[in-house]
Design a protein that fits this description.
The chain has 220 residues and is an alpha/beta fold. The chain is 57% helix and 13% strand. The chain has a 5-stranded parallel β-sheet, with helices on both faces. The longest helix is centred in the middle third of the chain and has 26 residues, at 65-90. The radius of gyration is 17 Å and the shape is globular. The chain starts with a strand and ends in a 5-residue tail after the last helix. The structure holds thymidine-5'-phosphate. Residues 12, 41-42, 56, 72, 97-98, 102-103, 106-107, 166 line the site of thymidine-5'-phosphate.
Length: 220
């Protein structure tokens, strides 16, 4: 596949969507004419967006963790087969707001499901597809949750307010999420780049672009 697959991961309020917008603009300017596809998980196809709605709305305890993991991987399987792989085959640069690492962390390390089994279920859904680069936007859980709350409040957006099922899982859960992501960064040091996202969006953006600028000239 001739494309490039970049994922953005992190806890709540880590600023992924802002960074993705900034990177998209920069890639468009740097590689004129190249297709840049922005997508997200859970979601990214009409059916996967329906699954997203089940996953991110309602009471925190409404689903078993096992069902939650299977729904995440079902929506990802649709997304990979219908959107990501075709785009990479066309030569696109794909920027995804979350991917498999989120399941390994949120459902695996933070909710105590066995990570190796989650990896095996992914392999059942689609051939082993790993991002070329993963930016982990690392922020303390307390700060991230505060930012996420303010964002919802400031936007007065009923949709984002309704999408608070994971935020409602509590601070201890989100501390495990942060630790889980950092553990994955240790496990995949060549792929996962840890970005200090505790300061301004501009501060994160500088780190992300410095990495991309050093890495991308090697690619056709
Ligand atoms: P978002 O806030 O980045 O839109 O993601 C929605 C929520 O879904 C977020 O709290 C993280 C959670 N999530 C998982 O628990 N596992 C996953 O595999 C994915 C993709 C998201």
């Amino acid at each position: 596949m001739s494309g490039l697959f970049i994922t953005f991961e992190g806890g709540e309020g880590s600023g992924k969507s802002t960074q993705i917008k900034l990177v998209k603009t920069w890639l468009e300017e740097t590689f004129p004419g190249r297709e840049i596809l922005v997508t997200r998980e859970p979601g990214g196809t009409p059916e996967a967006e329906l699954i997203r709605n089940i996953l991110v709305t309602g009471a925190a305890e409404k689903l078993s963790v096992e069902a939650e993991a299977l729904l995440m991987i079902a929506s990802r399987t649709e997304h990979v087969q219908k959107v990501i792989i075709p785009a990479l085959q066309r030569g696109a640069m794909v920027l995804s707001d979350r991917f498999s690492d989120s399941t390994l962390v949120y459902q695996g390390l933070a909710h105590d499901l066995p990570v190796e089994e989650l990896i095996a279920i992914h392999e059942f859904g689609f051939d082993d597809l790993q991002p070329d680069i993963t930016f982990l936007l690392d922020v303390p859980a307390e700060l991230g949750l505060q930012r996420a709350e303010h964002r919802q409040y400031a936007q007065k957006d009923p949709k984002s307010e309704a999408e608070s099922r994971f935020e409602d899982k509590g601070i201890a859960f989100h501390q495990r999420v942060r630790a889980g992501f950092l553990a994955l960064a240790d496990r995949y040091p060549g792929r996962v780049i840890v970005i200090d996202a505790s300061q301004s969006p501009e501060h994160s953006d500088k780190q992300v672009k410095a990495h991309l600028a050093a890495r991308l000239p090697d690619r056709p």
